[in-house]
Design a protein that fits this description.
The chain is mainly beta. It is built from one helix and 30 strands. The strands form seven sheets. Strands 2, 3, 4, 5 and 6 form a five-stranded antiparallel β-sheet that branches. Strands 15, 16, 17, 18 and 19 form a five-stranded antiparallel β-sheet that branches. Strands 1-30-29-28 form a four-stranded antiparallel β-sheet, with no helix packed on it.
Length: 408
């Protein structure tokens, strides 16, 4: 079914989200949806980038992004209400931020009296020495902080945060370079004296630490991490790094009050002597987990999806979803029927595809044209009932965050 919005668009061009209906079968998508993509209308004239989407347990959807004016960065958020974004709220601003296309702020809320958001702030003279700063709010309006999740005090890299609800608290994981910190002004991300580590902790919504662990003592330096809560407990995924420079995706799980040893979700055997800056994404419902990731074994770029129905203890066979040579930068949403929608960049397009647990994949749908440059960042996706909300950075003219909705 295809709805024509041509005439209506003349009247409502400032709205940023539109609905269309699209029939999706179990085997494949038989039609391409038609929808309108608009910039967020309330943004200032300053460039905007690094969007992130979050859906809380009550179904509320939030969007964060950074606006940059000269050397000053400002983190803002808005909430989706009646298919419109609310007026933006400023979380924090600073002129000493580490603003990075791949290491973007994170946001989480319980939808009631707990809001938590992260930024990155430079520490010392080294390019890659920066701290994670958490800001918290009881109402989403008045923000306090900063609070640092790490207390090593090192001029080192701390970033690539992921957060997931953990009852009344928050499970937080991050990449931590305290063991890789070097004296002097240089930070060599691939030949440092120590390895990047993965750390995790339980925090309350004011940023206070309840517990903290080292989850893996040698990981890839600059790929995003992912965290979810399953019925069995928290799960964290990330790009690992062996002594032989094999950088496959690994998982750790909190079982019986302790973390399991790192374990690959699938053995790609991708050997690469530098960080690909292309982390995995996951989503969970109960003990069902869906993970999407990019890999390039034998110089063959691939985007894959894999399912687990036991909280990540075992996994089914992976499903390759790309047609040609993908750029990666994946995201994934697990739907109520346990199928997953996956997004990635390929041929300078944001694409999505529906994949089922039994390995059936539909036809890819193009959401938007996008460049492969770093300025385009990592497109984001979240679910809203049976529809999906998208956010990405359009860098074709000037940096501008855009959003769209597609309903199936």
């Amino acid at each position: 079914m295809h709805l024509n919005y041509r005439n209506r668009n003349l009247l409502i061009s400032f709205l940023c989200l539109f609905f269309v209906a699209c029939d999706v079968s179990e085997k494949e998508n038989t039609s391409s949806p038609s929808f309108v993509i608009n910039p967020i209308p309330f943004q200032s004239s300053s460039p905007s980038a690094e969007p992130n989407l979050f859906t809380d347990s009550l179904g509320n959807i939030y969007l964060t992004w950074i606006e940059k004016n000269g050397q000053t960065g400002t983190l803002k958020y808005a909430k989706l209400v009646n298919d419109k974004w609310t007026d933006p709220v400023i979380i924090s601003s600073g002129d000493n931020w580490f603003i990075n296309w791949a290491d973007f702020p994170q946001f989480i809320t319980n939808g009631k009296n707990g809001f938590l958001a992260s930024t990155l702030v430079k520490r010392g003279k080294s390019t890659y020495a920066y701290d994670i700063h958490f800001y918290h709010s009881p109402n989403g309006i008045n923000w306090n902080g900063p609070v640092l999740p790490h207390d090593d005090g090192k001029e080192a890299e701390h970033g690539f945060v992921s957060m997931a609800s953990a009852g009344n608290n928050v499970m937080i994981s991050w990449l931590d370079g305290r063991n890789a910190a070097m004296s002097g002004d240089e930070h060599d991300m691939d030949h440092h004296s120590g390895a990047m580590t993965l750390r995790g902790g339980i925090f309350d919504y004011t940023g206070n630490k309840v517990n903290e662990w080292e989850l893996d003592n040698r990981v890839c330096d600059c790929c995003q991490t992912g965290a979810v809560q399953t019925n069995n407990g928290p799960v964290v995924i990330y790009r690992d790094r062996s002594e032989d420079e094999i950088r496959d995706i690994s998982i750790v799980r909190f079982i019986d009050n302790k973390w399991t040893a790192p374990k690959p979700i699938y053995t790609d055997n991708w050997k690469i002597n530098g960080c690909p800056v292309n982390g995995p994404k996951l989503d969970a419902k109960g003990n069902t987990i869906a993970i999407a990731w990019y890999s390039e074994p034998n110089n063959k770029p691939e985007v894959k999806v894999i399912f687990s129905t036991d909280g990540g203890e075992t996994f089914m066979d992976p499903i390759k979803i790309n047609d040609g040579k993908p750029t990666g930068r994946v995201d994934i949403c697990l739907m109520e029927d346990s199928s997953a929608w996956v997004s990635w960049i390929e041929k300078e397009e944001i694409r999505i595809i529906r994949v089922t647990e039994n390995g059936k994949a539909g036809k890819p749908i193009t959401i938007s044209k996008v460049s492969k440059k770093r300025t385009s960042g990592f497109p984001q996706m979240t679910k809203d009932g049976d529809s999906l909300i998208f956010a990405w950075t359009d860098d074709t003219d000037s940096l501008r965050v855009k959003t769209a909705r597609i309903k199936f």
